[in-house]
């Protein structure tokens, strides 16, 4: 039996073959209602696109833009800092991962170091199209999970993926660390090292950016502890070297023997309270950074997040999807543990790591 064709869909819907082809490629020139009618008709008769042919035709239609026949993708800076790709504590790792993966897949990465958050959207879209860029990685959004409305022309017309967090309306495909797993790993390591009363110190705004996943993972990790050892999180938004009065009161009331946090300033706060680290309390970094290599903590592998964002974007390019034409999907990157001086191993762990092998003599 002959497989259904574009012509069959055109006859069924009363539209042209060209309109059907555009609709199945999610072309924004076809109204949403019409596109859905065509997609329903295609599903009804069992039409299936040939993915290899579709990608080849897409490349031919693009005419080899990007220089020398190599396709290009954009890396857009949504941070307010024009040096964020080089100096931010987190963003450079995303950029590194994007660069490596784009190169491995044969794509040129066109990096927009200047922030695009204030740029008029239609102008930005014209720049991207003039450069022959096929899609966008959005990175650097740190203060809000709301995309700037000015970006709407871009996300309506191009495939786009965001790194680091998920956005609210409009929701986009994204790649980020599994923040829930990050907190669970940190508290599990704390408990296995012999700490019985771990606490969490976090900026509430950061936790809200990741839909409370840090706190949720922390609560799950506390679940098997005695009720008296389940310390409530301390939320703050201060970065002073002196401990806020509220932190001092939280410390004196609960006396945690380990603290999970994103902030190295907590070490200064504890010293100001004459708390010895790690003797009285251990410190665990929820996002390991090169500037504090001696800290124990969790490696979020943000470079792999950048690489995953490129993989997701290339899938969308091959499928002819725009950021708004596809159902939002996520890629979560599994964390790993990095030992350090701020969380010494328990005696049991130390003994197990130094067991001598029996002599073969």
Q: What is the strand and helix layout of this fold?
A:
Blueprint: H1 6-13, H2 17-24, H3 32-45, H4 51-62, E1 72-77, H5 84-87, H6 91-104, E2 108-112, H7 121-130, E3 133-139, H8 152-157, E4 160-163, E5 174-177, H9 179-192, E6 198-202, H10 204-209, H11 213-222, E7 234-235, H12 245-254, E8 258-261, H13 265-272, E9 282-285, E10 296-299, H14 302-319, E11 330-333, E12 336-338, H15 347-353
Parallel strand pairs: 1-2, 1-3, 3-4, 4-5, 5-11, 6-7, 6-8, 8-9, 9-10
Antiparallel strand pairs: 10-12
Helix pairs in contact: 1-2, 1-3, 6-14, 9-11
Task: Provide a descriptive summary of the structure in words.
This protein is 41% helix and 14% strand. It has 361 residues and is an alpha/beta fold. It has 3 domains: 44 residues, no CATH class; 138 residues, Response regulator (Rossmann fold, 3-Layer(aba) Sandwich), CATH 3.40.50.2300; 136 residues, Rossmann fold (3-Layer(aba) Sandwich). The chain has a 6-stranded parallel β-sheet with strand order 2-1-3-4-5-11, with helices on both faces. Strands 7-6-8-9-10-12 form a 6-stranded mixed β-sheet. Helix 8 links the parallel strand 3 and strand 4. It starts with 5 loop residues before the first helix and ends in an 8-residue tail after the last helix.
């Amino acid at each position: 039996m002959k497989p259904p064709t574009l012509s069959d869909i055109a006859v069924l819907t009363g539209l042209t073959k060209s309109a059907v082809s555009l609709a199945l490629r999610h072309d924004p020139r076809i109204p949403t209602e019409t596109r859905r009618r065509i997609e329903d008709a295609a599903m009804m008769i069992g039409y299936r696109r040939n993915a290899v042919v579709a990608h080849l035709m897409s490349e031919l239609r693009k005419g080899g833009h990007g220089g020398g026949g190599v396709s290009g993708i954009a890396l857009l800076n949504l941070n307010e800092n024009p040096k964020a790709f080089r100096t931010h504590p987190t963003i450079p790792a995303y950029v590194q991962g994007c660069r490596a993966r784009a190169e491995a897949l044969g794509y040129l990465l066109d990096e927009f170091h200047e922030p695009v958050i204030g740029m008029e959207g239609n102008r930005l879209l014209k720049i991207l199209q003039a450069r022959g860029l096929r899609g966008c990685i959005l990175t650097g959004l740190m203060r809000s999970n709301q995309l700037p409305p000015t970006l709407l022309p871009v996300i309506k017309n191009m495939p786009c993926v965001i790194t680091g967090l998920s956005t609210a309306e409009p929701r986009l495909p994204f790649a980020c660390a599994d923040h829930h797993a990050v907190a669970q790993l940190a508290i599990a390591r704390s408990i296995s090292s012999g700490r019985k009363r771990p606490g969490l110190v976090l900026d509430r705004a950061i936790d809200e950016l990741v839909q409370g996943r840090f706190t949720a993972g922390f609560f799950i990790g506390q679940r098997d502890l005695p009720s008296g050892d389940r310390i409530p999180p301390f939320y703050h938004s201060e970065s002073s070297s002196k401990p806020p009065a509220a932190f001092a009161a939280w410390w004196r009331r609960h006396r945690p023997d380990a603290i999970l946090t994103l902030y190295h300033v907590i070490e200064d706060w504890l010293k100001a309270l004459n708390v010895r680290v790690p003797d009285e309390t251990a410190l665990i970094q929820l996002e390991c950074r090169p500037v504090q290599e001696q800290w124990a903590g969790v490696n979020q592998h943000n470079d792999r997040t950048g690489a995953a964002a490129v993989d997701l974007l290339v899938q969308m390019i091959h499928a002819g999807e725009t950021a708004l034409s596809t159902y939002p999907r996520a890629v979560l990157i599994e964390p790993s543990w990095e030992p350090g001086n701020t969380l010494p191993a328990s005696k049991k762990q130390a003994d197990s790591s130094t067991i001598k092998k029996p002599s073969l003599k």
